[in-house]
Amino acid sequence: MKYVVTSNQFIHSFLISFGVTAGGTSLSILITAVTAYPLSKRYLPGIGAIMVLFIFTMMFNGGSSRIIC
Predict the structure, then answer these.
(1) Do residues 39 and 28 lie in contact, with contact meaning Cβ atoms separated by under 8 Å?
(2) Which pTM does this prediction carry?
(3) Angle formed by the axes of helices 8-39 and 47-59, to 10°?
(4) Cα 12–17–21 angle (5° rounding)?
(5) Which residues have a Cβ under 8 Å from the Cβ of 54 and sit 6 or more positions away?
(6) 47 CB-contact burial (10 Å; exposed 0-12 / middle 13-18 / buried 19+)
């Protein structure tokens, strides 16, 4: 176990996993903030259609589309 944790390949793999997770989280927060601010304004043209698209995708995502018998 000690060899696995201290090997260079494990450390390299861990750093790649950490970088991908941190980058993905940062990008997700940035996109959410950039999208949420304009949608909070009432004068945005086409806000009704955009909100319908957002709500539709939240209601029918991949995890809830299973048929329950």
Answers:
(1) no
(2) 0.62
(3) 140
(4) 150
(5) 39
(6) middle
